[in-house]
Amino acid sequence: MHKVLRRVFKPLENSILLVHSPEIKEMPLEIVFEIMSYLQPADLISLSRTSRRMREVLLSKSSRLVWRTSLSNVRGLPACPIDMAEPQFVNLIFGQNCQFCGKSGVKDIYWTCRARCCSNCVKSQCVCHLTWDDSPF
């Protein structure tokens, strides 16, 4: 029976394998993107980490509308800064790990640096801004 299904449902060039089962073969990316647009941004990040292929699809430029739609589903969320891609913005807001050392449970976001980092990495990775009064010049 699997051979019959494989002949009837030929893979499309513009599709992605969703499940490794004979019942669900492949779906066009347009349908996959439509389904993904109903997910919460944090779910999209999690989904992008499930496989290389899913990461490739969700981080491609063609999926930008999916991210924007997903972000628009969250009330009160500020717009994505123009200097960040939507997946980066989602990771910054909904992520829980230090972007330098990977420590989990980090809550501090340093918006001027566009980074979430732990107290140790703030000291070692971030440059403090000096005021004119503190300047050695």
From TrEMBL:
Domain F-box: 21-70
InterPro entries registered for this protein in UniProt: F-box-like_dom_sf (IPR036047), F-box_dom (IPR001810)
Cross-referenced Pfam families: F-box-like
Protein name (Swiss-Prot/TrEMBL): F-box domain-containing protein
